[in-house]
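Researcher: For the annotation table, I need structure tokens for Zn-dependent protease. Please keep the output clean. Sequence:
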Amino acid sequence: MSNTHRLIPLRSIHVLAHALLLMLALAGPAAAGRNPPADDSVRALGPTLAGEFALQSGKLDEAAKAYLEAAKAGNDPVLAERATRIALLAKDNKRAAEALELWRKLGGDAQAQSAAEATLALRRGDERAARRQLNSLLQADPDTGWQQVVGVLGIGARDPEQSARMLDRLLDDGRIPNKLQAWLAFGGLAQKLDQDKLAERIVDEVVKRFPGEPRVALLRASQLRQAGKEDEARKALAALDPALLAVPELRMAVAAEYDELGDFHAAADALAQGPQDDQTYSLRASLLARAEDKSALTALYEELRRDAAKPDPSRRLLLGQMAEFLDRNDEALDWYRGVPGGTQRWPAKLRAANVLYELKRGPEAYKALRDLQSDAAAPEDARRDGYILEADLHNRDKDGAGELDAFARGLAAFPDDPDILYARALGWERRDDIPRAEADFRKILVADPDSTAALNALGYTLADRTARYQEALELIDRARTAEPGNAAIIDSYGWVLYRLGRKGEALTELRRALALQKDPEIATHVGEVLWDMGKHDEARKYFDEARKLDPENRALQRALQKIGE
């Protein structure tokens, strides 16, 4: 990543460039001094800049206002679209409606405009108008319109219940195109919304429309699993024609379903069908390790090592990882050291250092990492990762001074490297040194104001560990503008709303995040908000879900301690 300091994020440069080009184009001969500049374009430039700088400060209301002013001044559909999207993010329905009306008047992508109009109608609670727009999208282009509808219902509605109602009505209207991919997408959406009856209705319809299609059977199994009917889900998977497992895509999908059911052996068996490569071998090894079946993992390991006489870098790297799974660290070290070259050489060196540490050969591990850090032939990312791993090993040794020294040397070699700064910031947060964590996150943002990872991490840290909630919200809003569908960012947004006392809005956003990504920390946040709202029984369900995903999660442990559970 470039260390160039810039005030304006890359994602916004095209907007400003567009405004400048518009000004020059409208000016025409004025560039040569023959005519005065075009008034519209000149008037648009100032509010465009103001809008972007407001966006940089996380002030979405001000950004929407400025961009709308710029769009009006320049009669520019690009700026009108941006004003609409920012106003929707800011939940400023009045300004979003005004910007959308201007956007439609000035022209542009009609489908995108209909999607925005549907989102605005949902936010207002006008489900009849939203239904018209969604039906219009489905009719206008059966090939792509349904994708816009899935997007609107996935992240544009006020809450999951509203999304489910709208999807139910679209089914009633018979508007969903007779395309398998569309039906699978809507079925998956119903599952993410935790709407078992709706998901079952869609699956039943898909079975009728596409009999014998294996992906439909997979959707059925997934729907049964989500409804808690795990035995029926297993029967649906078992009923699949074994010949289908010869198709790599379907084999992976079947294995993924068994994995979700916790049937690691069945998942590994599914992957064992058909042609094998290092990816399937690696996944099978991982599944058998999670099943804690060392016997089966040993058999797979012995099978692969028989064919490892030739110096294949990928295979030797894989065998080293499998040996680690089996706690055969001496053998793992031999495999890693035997990787002859190629891009696999560098991760093998990092893994070898980690294995040395596990073998209680700490001084050798640290020396191996120091050698890697100073190896001029090593790529920059491998040398950088050498510093990060060294810091991690010192942390495991509870050697705080050594950890900080590794980070300091890494930053001396790679000034302001965002990965090293990010890792050190997390280390400061772990030590409850929030000012230093904040300083490192802000160093990342000086070099890259567009770093959604740093914006989100800093915003969440301020929301979770300080009382600077408004500042946290502004940082998270900047990240939301760049990635409105990112589950981690939506979780941070929900969490800061909770800290601001907006519990109802917080719960909606946190549930939306959990629908997008099953994550222990997000599930914990949902549980905490529900507990604070007095819904203890429902909260316990989410804490139980978080336990299943990761019983050692720090957020979960803090929450359980807080509520005395």
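Researcher: And a one-line annotation?
Model: DSSP finds 32 helices and no strands in the chain.
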